[in-house]
Design brief:
The complex is a heterodimer of chains A (480) and B (313). Chain A contains 13 helices and 20 strands. With 480 residues, chain A is α+β, with helices and mostly antiparallel strands. In chain A, helix 7 runs antiparallel to helix 9 (315-324) and helix 12 (409-420) runs antiparallel to helix 13 (424-440). Chain A has helices spanning 36-41, 92-100, 112-117, 142-147, 208-216, 232-236, 266-275, 278-286, 315-324, 341-356, 368-377, 409-420, 424-440; strands at 15-20, 50-52, 58-60, 63-68, 74-79, 121-127, 130-135, 171-177, 181-186, 199-204, 222-223, 241-246, 251-256, 331-337, 359-365, 383-388, 444-449, 452-457, 460-461, 478-479. In chain A, a hairpin with a 5-residue loop joins strand 2 and strand 3. Chain B has 313 residues and is mainly α. Chain B has 14 helices and no strands. Chain B has helices at residues 2-28, 33-38, 44-53, 60-72, 86-121, 126-140, 143-157, 174-208, 211-218, 223-228, 231-244, 246-259, 265-274, 278-306. In chain B, helix 13 runs antiparallel to helix 14. The chains are: A alpha+beta (480), B mainly alpha (313).
Chain lengths: 480, 313
């Protein structure tokens, strides 16, 4: 089969330079945490059997086609002909070897998140060019897990994951100039449509203003994150640049400790939500970019429902609810604010809004280390603000030990039902119900959905607008 | 000669002490390499397994002695995070940081000597006021602000220099490498020169009040000629201050490297501390402290050569 129909626009031999803020600490995509590693390597250098597109849908990658049995326990993949960057052809043994690495739950070379995603896998076997994976129980997220960093296919017996990257993807990693950039070059014998640009350089700027300045000076073609949206005006005023706003999975969450008074009372949690004018908050804290969501689901998920009317902004209703819940005026609460601008930008606004309905709010700035230790691990806090970015992360509310300390049996049942659902309709219905329950229980307040803001030169095309997966897919980026 | 030996001994002890201090400090910081590598959702068992794999569960003193022994033999180990060789990582970063620091220091010293003499001679006219004011402003503006302003003017508006970064090919792309260091060197040396000028100026004023200067003038030399006879003398205190300032200069280099997105040692250090990449942080700081102590040692020796009065017999 080899080459699929190539509408070869890959005559463009230019270099496109893309600016990021976080640089990988290693090239070890399966064993080292951090979003920067899959951002550059997944789908660009390494590939899985399947790939998640910008809209979240799953399409075949190294598997030409795949099939799921009716009981959801057996997955079969027909491999396509592909070659690794070192020239060796892909064989089913590579797939079996790569995925079997995830079956040892004591492994220290695989990230715990990935081990958990593959915990239900019983066996990975190959016959001819067909790879069969069997599960012990149904897992509706399994194809998605395969499309992410855990599902990447390595050449069999690879030992150095940290400093080399021999994948099958559309780009070859040609140079990592540490502290500066990673250079990807077009893989000429790629099995699919070849990359539109010959060279793509991922450049890293530890300092966000250095990134902005590089964009303004024309040193880079794309700026992948706008960390301070108030600076967008500068970019919008430039005729040679364009601003793109897409969707993310990042819900800016005002967490309330559900196990601690006064937030162990649903009425109080709802009153908190009604005290905060989200639309005004988004204007103040994020320059008006950002979407109100009303629950813990981004609009790109099929089970999204606009739940902003469950606890609409209503100061009088909030005050009344607090009075009848017996919350004395001046009840002291602490808001732990980690050092990140969406949190610091919104903390004063939230404190003022809560003071307005009778709380006495102390804002405590915390370092990330302290946040992880005291707030996240020990749940020793009242309120905090953090953007939760994991995809399909509704399950975190089903864990009563998670720092929200939200303990609701009905919710857990819905989440279990969703992962055991045999049709996608069934699953969507369960998750929609879960999202509504979460909102009715006001487990947290969801301030806004973080927009994916990028700036690019006008003549650059082919960027992914949304940031919903782990990878920053660069094969369609080109200068037009 | 015994003076030199004493200096050497002090430097050696200082370097050794700092390695232990750095080692201990890194272990006191919350979070460790295992949590940084496996992420926030790692189980305690997984973290423990990784720690024992990397030998991080051994007694701290054993770890320290082992590391020190290897480091003395020139083996800095390999990064537990990226797997790369720590020694060669440091060397490749010094490619950027050393030229940055050396060029800034040289420029700062030359500017300080010239400006110091100038403003000492023209104590009462408007030029001197401007110079003093400029050096005050140079002292008052943080390096970050200076850097950002420089980028906005020269890279964003005038577009004659890059906003930051360093060529992928390093010094083989000599032209671009130099171009990318122009603004960082200018910013770093400006902030140093501002301070050194004040020392040079007060030293020059002392000289002008001295008999040597009056005699020089009496022989018919012009003011600038007379004061230039004291150039060596002025250099002594300026070098002394610069040596004391070398650690400040390195901190400044960290800031400048971040503002200009330069792949230097400082920028690497900041990232490695965040990643708790112990061996790399220990290695880098060993190199930095060695540089600091070497500079101070060398300055001491140089000062004695320049100014015979400082020689102890």
């Amino acid at each position: 089969m080899g080459c699929s129909a190539q509408s070869d626009s890959s005559t463009d031999d230019t270099t496109v330079t893309i600016g990021f803020t976080l640089e990988p600490t290693s090239l070890d995509i399966s064993g080292t945490a951090g979003q920067a590693i899959p951002q550059v390597l997944l789908d660009n250098v390494y590939e899985g059997l399947v790939r998640a597109s910008d809209d979240g849908s799953i399409s075949p990658a190294l598997a030409e086609s795949y099939d799921v049995s009716a009981d959801g326990l057996t997955y079969t993949f027909s491999l396509r002909e592909a070659t690794f960057h070192d020239g060796r052809e892909l064989s089913p043994d590579d797939v079996v070897w790569s995925l079997s690495r995830l079956l040892d739950d004591k492994s220290t070379t695989i990230l715990p998140t990935q081990l958990a995603q593959f915990a239900r896998v019983n066996s990975v076997t190959a016959a001819g060019n067909v790879v069969t994976i069997t599960l012990s129980e149904r897992d509706n997220d399994f194809l998605y897990s395969l499309s992410q960093r855990g599902g990447v296919i390595f050449k069999k017996d690879t030992t150095d994951f940290a400093t080399t990257a021999n994948g099958t993807g559309p780009f070859v990693l040609t140079k990592w100039d540490k502290g500066n950039s990673i250079t990807l070059d077009r893989f000429d014998t790629y099995w699919g449509r070849r990359s539109d640009s010959k060279t793509v350089v991922f450049r890293y700027f530890a300092d966000a203003s250095a990134l902005s300045n590089a964009m303004l000076a024309g040193d880079i073609d794309i700026m992948t994150t706008v960390q301070s949206p108030e600076t967008l005006e500068v970019f919008e005023s430039r005729s040679d640049l364009k601003v793109l706003s897409g969707s993310t999975n990042c819900e800016v969450t005002l967490s309330m400790n559900n196990s601690r008074a006064p937030f162990n009372n649903v009425a109080v949690r709802k009153a908190v939500r009604q005290a905060i004018d989200k639309s005004a908050l988004i204007d103040v804290a994020w320059a008006g970019y950002g979407t109100e969501i009303g629950s813990f689901v981004p609009p790109t998920d099929p089970w999204f429902e606009d739940l902003t009317d469950v606890a609409p902004f209503d100061v009088d209703a909030s005050r009344d609810a607090l009075v009848s819940a017996g919350v004395a005026p001046g009840t002291p609460i602490t808001l732990d604010v980690p050092p990140i601008n969406y949190a610091t930008n919104s903390s004063e606004f939230i404190a003022a809004a809560l003071k307005d309905v009778g709380f006495s709010v102390t804002i405590t700035p915390v370092t990330w280390e302290e946040w992880l230790d005291r707030v996240f691990t020990k749940a020793d806090y009242d309120m905090s603000i953090v953007c939760h970015i994991e995809r399909n992360d509704m399950a975190i509310y089903a864990n009563p030990d998670y720092y929200f300390r939200f303990d609701n049996a009905d919710y857990r049942e819905l989440i279990t039902a969703a992962s055991a659902a045999s049709t996608s309709e069934e699953r969507t219905a369960a998750l929609r119900g879960a999202a509504r329950l979460l909102s009715e229980q006001s487990a947290s307040d969801w301030l806004w959905l973080m927009p994916n803001l990028q700036v690019a030169k006008r003549d650059v095309a082919g960027l992914s607008k949304n940031a919903v997966g782990d990878s920053y897919y660069a094969a369609r980026i080109e200068r037009v | 000669m015994s003076g030199v030996l004493r200096r050497l001994a002090v430097s050696g002890a200082g370097i050794l002490g700092s390695t232990f201090f750095v080692f201990a400090l890194l272990r006191v910081l919350p979070g460790d390499l295992a949590t940084a590598k496996l992420g926030t959702d790692a189980t305690p068992e997984a973290l423990q397994r990784l720690r024992s794999e990397y030998g991080l569960d051994k007694p701290l003193f054993t770890q320290y002695v082992q590391w020190l022994g290897n480091a003395m033999r020139g083996d800095f180990g390999s990064s537990l995070m990226s797997g790369s060789d720590v020694g060669s990582d440091i060397v490749s970063r010094l490619d950027v940081t050393l030229p940055l620091i050396v060029a800034s220091s040289l420029l700062a010293v030359m500017a300080a000597l010239w400006l110091g003499q100038r403003s000492a001679l023209q104590r009462s006219n408007w030029k001197s006021v401007v110079l003093t004011l400029a050096s005050q402003i140079g002292l008052a503006i943080p390096i970050v602000v200076l850097g950002i302003v420089a980028v906005v003017i020269f890279a964003v508006w005038l577009r004659i220099l890059p906003a930051g970064g360093f060529p992928v090919d390093g010094w083989r792309a000599t032209g671009s490498a130099i171009r990318s260091l122009v603004l960082p060197v200018a910013v770093l040396s400006l902030s140093q020169a501002a301070m050194l000028t004040r020392f040079a100026r007060s030293e020059a004023l002392d000289f002008i009040a001295s008999d040597t200067y009056r005699t020089a003038r009496a022989t018919g030399m012009t003011k600038p000629q007379s004061i230039s006879t004291a150039r060596r003398l002025l250099l002594v205190p300026v070098l002394g201050v610069l040596a004391l300032q070398i650690s400040t200069l390195i901190v400044g280099a960290v800031v400048v490297e971040n503002v200009f997105a330069l792949p230097g040692l400082g920028a690497m250090l900041v990232r490695d501390i965040a990643a708790r990449d112990y061996l790399k942080v220990q290695g880098s700081l060993l190199v930095v402290t060695t540089i600091v102590f070497t500079v101070q040692f060398a300055t001491g020796v140089l000062q004695e050569r320049l100014d015979p009065r400082r020689r102890t017999t």
